[in-house]
Amino acid sequence: MEGWRGYLVEDMARKPLFEDYEYITGVLGVPLPLDESGTPTPLTEELRQQILHEQMLFEGFWDDAVQKVKQAGGVIGARFLDAAEGIKSFGEEGWTIIQQLYRVATNPELIDTFAGAIWRYTKKKVSDLKKVLQQLAQKLGEWGMPTFGDMAMKALELLNKTIESLGSLAGWKKAIGYAGFALAFKWLWDKVADFIEPYREWMEKIQNAGAAVMDEFKSWLQDTVKEKLTSFIETHFKGIVDKLTSVALGVKPWWDAAVKILGGVKFVIDVLRAPMKRFGRKPISSTQAPGAAPQLEEFLLRAAG
User: Where exactly are the structural domains of the chain?
Assistant: First the structure.
């Protein structure tokens, strides 16, 4: 494996990788310094090493889904695994999802579109959860439960920090990160819904209510706010997000972790199917060279249009 890696890097150095600025910035997520006219300045050796590192990280992540092929002229490209292999590793529907995710991750024009689709899929529930936490952080102190108010504030800060971290992602990592966030947040929402819906009912019930009803409400909060709300955010959510937004282990470990943590293949597919349905509907066999894939781009533009 190390020998193969070394060969690939050596081969890349002779290819136009360092000249493909759109790929470097859009897919690898490496910002390039620009001159006064907006043209990238000559690459320093340090920047070249960073680009190679990011390219190797990208290829390493997709090893279990994409195989390397050598084309005419010595150009190395990438092609999806044989369908039977892909289905064996990810399941039939899972393999379709992985192929679509790869297509998105290798097309700069689609990465932001995909991230936007993911956010539209989750933003309403994210907003609902944040409003509940904000209200609890403010009101619990007034209701004589400052410790629980601190818990709500801490959970809110953690949720906000997690969302803010998505903004630092670029290129293909942004596609993986947003997919992972959607999965993690759906898991979280399913857990905290047992608190949020009754909480909303209580908030209507206590309007102009007497002391007895208010005491009953406070008792309910003490029994549930930690068990069914803040503990899921503080104890589990961040860890799940970290695992499912990481690109360190590869797409198969990423997929397996999602399936294991979230309770099955169906959960993962159900979450990703809706925001991904625009980004390809059937496997294709075209070969993709790093940074240049006209056949794939044409397919994706048709699918997205």
Answer: 1-61, 110-276
